[in-house]
Every structure is written in structure tokens, then in C-alpha cells.
Specification:
Layout (H helix, E strand, L loop, with lengths): L7 H15 L4 H35 L18 H8 L17
Length: about 100
Amino acid sequence: MGFSGIGIWEILLILIVALLVLGPNRLPGIARTLGKTMRAIKKASADLTTNIAREVELTKNEPPPPKEASNISNSQAPSAANKTNASDQNNQPTNPEGQQPQND
């Protein structure tokens, strides 16, 4: 078995028929054009395969999109910096009224 299920004798028969139909002058030019076309198709196929593989890898490596907060916008939500600054003033604890205890 030869090329894609076609034996060597079938390929030889096709080449002989092509030589008789096209003639010896046109056959090399047609074979050259056919070779260039096949090369271009193979290159385009390889490029497409490479691009798809690259996109799949990029998609695998991307973090999932962030989940949206439920009905709280960023302007309404208190920031972590504001929480820590209010309770950490001079590293002293605060009483329930929010005032610092006085050291006597």
C-alpha cells in the first residue's frame, strides 16, 4: 500500500495518464504548481494548529473572571484600609464608643 490507500501501480497509472493528457511540456509546470499548493496548505494547517494550541494554553493559564458582588458597589463597600486605620491608631484598643482609653 502506498499513498492513502493507493498502491504504487495505481499512482504510476495516474502519472502516465496525466503525461498523455497534459503532454511532456506542461506536466513539470503543473507538478511544480501542485507541489507549491500542497506546501502552502501544509504550512497553513501547521500555523492553524499552532495558534489553536497556543490559545488553548492561554485559556488554561488565565484566572477565572472575578465573581460580581451582590448588590454592593465598590463605592458603598468599606475598604480594608479604612477598617485597619480606624482600629489601629497608635496601636491602642478602642472602647465601644470609639474613643481611646486614657492612660493615667
